[in-house]
Design brief:
With 203 residues, the chain is α/β, with parallel strands linked by helices. 31% of the residues lie in helices and 21% in strands. The strands form two sheets. The chain has a six-stranded mixed β-sheet with strand order 1-2-8-7-3-4, with helices on both faces. A two-stranded antiparallel ribbon has the order 5-6.
């Protein structure tokens, strides 16, 4: 049984599929919650990176999609991917499990950006990322390939929208998918049925 959660907005993003494992609940981030475990991942805790990566690999493999390449969103302080970042570790693990290639240098940013969570509204966040991602067709050919884009958390789909723009500009026939650990929501009960069953069992 596939336990990935589908983001219903994926059709608006011009991608073929969009999934996450849990919900990032800003009002429910106490110790032991999945939101707190996502924070541990973002902060680079090795155990959290290992457990989220393992869970992600198990669930994504059930989709039975042959992903050709995996790319990741860049952090606000990155213009080029920095080795050892949590999402880099996630990407490398998924590439091994899914028999894909981790395309570490497929994307870059023209400048460092402010953290989106520090901006007050969607218009500011959209403006901050507008046109900042660049794809590198001199390094890879994503045309006619299945590309899995990964990130830790999505809130308003602003980062993924910008990444899709950059990739489609470079490789118009790339087939894109998106996966993240958590999708920001505000109903504190959303993780009730998955917290123990799908995370703690992987310790």
């Amino acid at each position: 049984m596939i336990s990935l959660l589908t983001n219903p907005q994926y059709k608006q993003l011009n991608i073929s599929g969009c999934w996450h494992l849990a919900y990032y609940l800003s009002a429910n981030r106490g110790a032991g919650t999945l939101a707190h475990k996502i924070i541990e991942f973002k902060n680079g805790y090795p155990a959290a990176i290992k457990r989220w990566s393992k869970w992600a690999g198990i669930e994504l493999k059930k989709l039975d999609i042959q992903f050709d390449y995996i790319v990741r969103a860049l952090g606000s302080n990155e213009t080029l991917p920095i080795k050892g970042k949590p999402c880099s570790e996630l990407g490398r693990h998924l590439a091994e499990v899914l028999n894909a290639n981790y395309a570490a240098m497929a994307l870059s940013k023209s400048r460092k950006t402010r953290p989106l969570h520090a901006l007050t509204n969607r218009a500011e966040r959209t403006h901050e990322l507008h046109g900042v991602y660049q794809a590198h067709p001199e390094k890879y050919n994503f045309n006619e390939k299945n590309i899995l884009i990964i990130d830790d958390v999505t809130t308003a789909n602003i980062t993924i929208t910008e990444i899709v723009r950059a990739i489609k500009q470079a490789w118009p026939t790339a087939n894109l998918y998106f996966f993240c650990l958590g999708k920001t929501e505000y109903d504190v009960s959303l993780n009730d049925n998955i917290t123990k069953k799908y995370f703690t069992d992987l310790q």
